[in-house]
Amino acid sequence: MSSIMTGERFHFGHLFRRVSLGFLSRRPQERPSQLVHRLFFLLSQEKLYLSPHFSLDSLALRLNVAPSLLSKALRETIEQDFLELINYYRVQEAKKILANPNNIEVCLENISSHLGYLSHSSFLKTFYQHTLLTPDEYRQQMNLVCGPLDS
Fold it and tell me: Which stretches make up the HTH araC/xylS-type domain (predicted)?
């Protein structure tokens, strides 16, 4: 008897993982730079990188390409891997949040969670690697540059 008929939950994810993604490929004659351009557009429009469960596989599926082709296009075009690219986007988003004086009361744990980090320490480490500042130091610098809202 099928799981549908017995009322059990059926998970398509398990079935999908068994199916090879080999049928996915770049669009005919799509250059790696064109694929990366589509990737940038998708990331800027939908901010998929904010999801803690965002992965190379899920992104490749959205772009209708094999994960290996996407990974190769990233290395060839921007000389970064998937994780480096996602961390870059997340740090840029963090910088916007931290630079906004209206967000001065927002705690860093909430920011890291909003950015899709499952670990606050990973956020702190990644932010420092990209800026050579802690998020608190960056926030202080930006608020000094921008000045307080109330004069």
Answer: 33-141
